[in-house]
Amino acid sequence: MTLSFRTSKGGRxxxxxxxxxxxDGKTLVGQAGDxxxxxxxxxxxHLVGRSFKYHRPRGxxxxxxxxxxxxxxxxxxxxxxxxxxxxxxxxxxxxxxxEGMVIVSQNRWPSLGFDIGAVNDRLSPLFVAGFYYKTFxxxxxxxxxxxxxxxxxxxxLGKAPTAPDPDRYANRYAHCDVLVxxxxxxxxxxxxxxxxxxxxxxxxxxxxxxxxxxxxDVGAQIDGRPAAEWVSAVIAELAGNDxxxxxxxxxxxxxxxxxxxxxxxxxxxxxxxxxxxLPRERLWQVRARQVVLATGAIERPLVFPENDRPGVMxxxxxxxxxxxxxxxxxxxxxxxxxxxxxxxAAFDIKALGGNVVAILDMRTDVDPALKExxxxxxxxxxxxxTVTGVKGTKRIExxxxxxxxxxxxxxxxxxxCDCLLMSGGWTPNVSLHSQARGKLDWHADKGxxxxxxxxxxxxxxxxxRGIDGLAQVLADGARAGAExxxxxxxxxVDVPAFSASGxxxxxxxxxxxVPHDRDASRVRxxxxxxxxxxxxDVKLAVREGMHSIEHIKRYTTTGMATDQGRLSNMxxxxxxxxxxxxxxxxxxxxxxxxxxxxxxFGTLATTSRGDLFDPxxxxxxxxxxxxxxxxxxxxxxxxxxxxxxxxxxxxxxxVLRECRTVRESVGIFDASTLGKIEVVGPxxxxxLERIYTNPWKKLGIxxxxxxxxxxxxxxxxxxxxxxxxxxxxxHVTTTTGGAPRVLAHMEDYLQTEWADLKxxxxxxxxxxxxxxxxxxxxxEAIAPLVDDIDLSTEAMPHMSVRxxxxxxxxxxxxxxxxxxxxxxxxxxxxPSRARQVWDAVFANVERLGGxxxxxxxxxxxxxxxxxxIVGQETDGTVTPDDVGMSWAIGKNKPDFVGKRxxxxxxxxxxxxxxxxxxxxxxxxxxxxxxxxxxxxxxxAPRTPALGHVTSSYMSAAAGRPIALAMIANxxxxxxxxxxxxMPNGAIAVEVVPPLFVDPEGSRLNA
Amino acid sequence: xxxxxxxxxxxxxxxxxxxxGHQWRKPDPKPEYDVIIIGAGGHGLATAxxxxxxxxxxxxxxxxxxxxxxxxxxxxxxxxxSNYLWEESEALYDHAMDLWQDLSQELNYNVMYxxxxxxxxxxxxxDIQVFKRHVHANRLAGVQNEWLSAEEAKEFCPPLNIxxxxxxxxxxAALQRKGGVARHDAVAWGYARGADRxxxxxxxxxAVTGIxxxxxxxxxxxxxxxxxxxxxxxxxxxxxxxxVVMDMAGVRMPLESNPLQALVSEPVKPCFPCVVMSNTxxxxxxxxDKGELVIGAGTDQYVSYSQTGGLQITTHTVDAICELFxxxxxxxxxxxxxxxxxxxxxxxxxxxxxxxxxxxxxCGWGTGGFKATPGSGHVFAxxxxxxxxxxxxxxxxxxxxxxxxxxxxxxxxxxxH
Lengths: 1006, 417
Ligand SMILES: Cc1cc2nc3c(=O)[nH]c(=O)nc-3n(C[C@H](O)[C@H](O)[C@H](O)COP(=O)(O)OP(=O)(O)OC[C@H]3O[C@@H](n4cnc5c(N)ncnc54)[C@H](O)[C@@H]3O)c2cc1C
What we know:
The structure holds 2 protein chains of 2 kinds. Chain A is of the alpha+beta class. In chain A, 23% of the residues lie in helices and 28% in strands. In chain A, strand 10 (221-222) and strand 11 (225-226) form a beta hairpin. The longest helix of chain A is centred in the middle third of the chain and has 20 residues, at 470-489. The relative contact order of chain A is 0.07. Chain B is 30% helix and 24% strand. Chain B starts with 5 loop residues before the first helix and ends with a helix. Chains A and B meet through strand 6, helix 4, helix 5, helix 13 and helix 14 of A and helix 1, helix 5, helix 7, helix 9 and strand 16 of B.
């Protein structure tokens, strides 16, 4: 197939290297260096997609990331497409083609050429802005069953991928002195100037090739050489400097506080066969001392009737396709403009052998030099002339002309053409300045908002701040680069001077709807192409009282498409301001939001996936437990051994066996995940006195105490056993999940409220592995391994701690304590030695007929004793008294966190929910945790429950199921019968004290 | 004002839609009103609407510093559900849920309430306990909520990854079938149109800068950017800026204001049937009628009045979504924004009287007040009109932070929306 729209020479594509790709099932050929858009145009294809609402056929409008129309689904290969791994909604103007790429057009069925959805276009008189708010309400039942499914089915453009993404994404944090966004003349001049001053520079640019407009400004000369050569020289200099990072295909997408910048780098999508070690995309999170925004300007469409037809294209885009990609966008090309710059497109295309049928300029006072040049190129020129419509639907065949005189337009015949290049002038690209919270100033003379004073350490350079003309833009870039480098590094910076000739200053612009002579009620002139918003829609919104530009945007959806209004916002604003009879700056722009252009989810998620989603914390015993076949549960970041099933056992059987074993002989349990904080300093006891409800000052050295911690509201926040190691040193333990919260809570008080206390806090969670040994034979199990601690009950009673050694010199802190109701020890040893100690203890445990147990058994054993678990019995609404722990409150303490709140009326009121035990009447049914408890078996609807079941287990020791519950006035109800209503009937329960084994606690002291 | 209908639309189309009138007027403030509502968000507008149509109080102004509906109402991810834990909350949110059922017809404005089901994922044993507690409590209260196994959850939402290969595998879910989403702008606009048509003045671009009180301490009116406006009663419904406004009357509020972010993807064809929330991995998602995936998370940690949130919240939200729905990893984020939410210590709202006679406040909805908009406006109007709370909002006093009678939804559930 011949690429009949290719020019015979010129362009930056590799004419020797052709690239095959598939578009809607058809194999097409482009050249290396083509974008998908340029390759399609080279094949004579303009029709690329369908619009959102009316399904109108749409062509390629631009040559950049602002493209609203030519959105396609892209898969890297036929295999990827078949596997459901395509990407929807990519702009054909940004996609760099490679061999084997598979492209599908979107929002059409059954085909791009024949689309059923196009019936919407016929119904467009009904489907105006906001129509769905006014209808689909009758009959009511139709909304969920008929209307909404219908609306939803019509939603969306492309199709979401259906299969998991096989690609990798990477993340990089970086710092620099100067970050430059954009590699056009301003950006390059800024980067070069900053680099020469010695600054660390990051230059990020959207496209594969740096240079911006210089890549297609073929006549331009800088410092005596063609602009493109100058670009190569600058890039070579930058690339050779190790203080510079060049980031091609990288979008500066977000400007956050304190010059924190988000960049998205597309690493491999443009390659057919990328190095598998490379990620698909990379997120850069950069803290830049200074930022130079050199993001250029975006050409504005003319809003005339049928301006959305394939074949209508932005003038500069036409010039880019011709000069840079060697593609003529049509066989007979007309240019409609109100601005000088579009004339360049006509001249360049003509110079490449293209057929320019006419330049139609809305102005009457066009620069005579331009007219002269057109005459030299023998191009027909019409001034005071506008386009009032087009002929053709899937591709234009011609345009209607109108002669403008004053406010009226009269028909001036028509012109045959298959491509119309249009320009309403340029909109400075102020998105990032605005994202950085910089104000915008309205410049009526330029018809543009330009960056006002920045709020953050950034400055704009070049055409994004309305500077025009190559020489001026280069000088402005150098200035900005020098200022930024100087501000960042403090170095004096030389500002280079560039000599340049080429694109001159361009004058002329047009904003808003173009006047025409057509029946206004019948024709549509599009403002927002993708969302099918017309000038009439904007006016309708105003008519309906939508006077804020934000209301207009939301009501019409203008500016809400995937181009975020880059082409449409200024035209919409102008039309709105006319309708509102108000000035543009008074009406105001809508907010610019990040991201600048869409960012792949994978790029944002980076490496955070699977096990890397959150750190996995494993104890020193983890591998042992895994080898034993333990099941694990997630508790905050930790993996905890849940139970240790023997072959053939389910969870239920395993837990029953483990429980029985602990009570009969001995069990070993990995308690390493408990939070540990070393509290040290002369005021350590005073500090704990204020943080915990309990008294600490009189706790003897070598003694343990159960500590209860409240939040400011007086509710239980955490608990744990605390040991006094020395006069000024405490070993604090916390719940597994609460460890970070407790440390932060302590630090908060220490640093903000009690800065006078001499106390230091150190997290030691990772410094101690904890091996709990519980059961009547606990002492027997550990005794042979302890070097230098007297384990007799007299020497080491329940609730004491000793420092010493185990297994011939391994340092340990040995706690005698119990969370099971059995006599028990917790051996704290350095994690590096923990496995060794564990193995030795486990061998003894096994010999004594014991076993290892997991968190579930731990839960059951403590429930049998009525010990609470913070977060299970408590839920942030529970006081110490509620769970029967008034004893933990130091009565004589002047203050502690939460004390004042405990005195609030509701916390002292009668009828509060209190911890009780529940026994099912039938002795068999296992209650469901979370089930509600009521007085009646069949309560009337909306009767408040008395409380709920917090814990429920089959108890081996009790030989029946047991439960804990929080019940209103529970302690006064012991002996009462209550009910647990379940979907299939209520279960009768008896309220009992929350204590199911060894009420005297004699086993603890054994 | 015309009644919206298909026929009306068709008729107006014949004349190229030239005959539509304003949905609301652009009045100048009168010197005095019976009631001034500060804040034209959904809650403020609904309050004005119900004042007018249920209590016959029409000499009402709603003052808005920006554009109506431009606060959190126009920024939220529109999840509607009522399966809260405590009886007080169940009554409040279910009151709203009842009103949602007919809201489009009531307002003659299609608010697109779409009962597609809200499913909350459990990833830990603790989550299971908490959600089951909700399911049981809700069943007794007559509030719809049911427990699903992981497999049932996947059946309800086919894109869901219930594989064991993720960091926090899905262990089950709680589903409220009549939960769903609605169109936020339409809610604000529908109430605005309804209130305006009953005589309420909605005055935009009118910031309240002070609250004037009589010598006896009662309300005299408000200072605004458009001058003093007298009022017998003032209702403050200013969401993230409530503490600022209440401070003008010398009332300190137990509120913290944080940025809360949300984002949408580019629009795609329907691929996601319901709403899924996961508080353990911090993310929730639905698909709008336009095709965008609408995604949100928890608040930014620091208190702030700046709507620019941190990128780390966005990245952490999106990574969670990609874990749960791995096919979305190749989708792209189109827009990301934030709002300022007003958070109370117990994560329940404050709706009621204040120590200042004639001053009422409705705030503290935090990350989850959109769903309550109709009910909130309804009971707040009652409170203002009668100078005493409706039974439904009676427990939601400002005083509860003094007495300790908290309604702690955060502690009970740790679920945001
Ligand atoms: C990102 C995000 C996602 C959310 N997602 C959900 C969700 O999925 N489900 C849910 O139920 N809720 C959600 N919420 C919460 C919900 O948006 C809010 O709780 C609810 O919209 C609050 O409504 P409102 O009318 O009280 O506040 P707003 O809509 O914020 O209205 C308050 C108004 O007061 C105005 N105001 C403030 N100060 C003054 C002054 N001095 N003078 C005059 N006017 C003033 C403001 O301009 C504003 O318009 C979300 C919130 C955010 C930010």
